[in-house]
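=== RUN LOG ===
request id: a7f3
mode: sequence -> structure
chains: 1
length: 97
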Amino acid sequence: MLYNISNDELELFSFHLKNKYFKDLTNSALFLFPKREEVFLYIPKIEFDNLVKRKNIMMEFMEFLSLINFLKEERFINIIPNEDVGLSELHIMRKDF
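=== RESULT ===
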């Protein structure tokens, strides 16, 4: 999935999450509450009720976060802070929103 990122242009991380990651990950969404410093991963009931599917979705998401953290630490990617993000009540990472 990360190989689709262009080396020629700056691509916002939130755009990548919203339009690429959560587009392909079952039917999930990520809800971020900056003021409360909370994050919720939405998994559809069908996947949530199946323990194996739920575990696989959670593992895939944690692996993705670990990869992003590794890439950031090794300076392969830069995550540029945006102060306006903290002013919002809610951000939804999903292509449909």
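=== NOTES ===
Helices lie at 13-24, 45-49, 51-73.
The longest strand covers residues 29-33.
=== END ===
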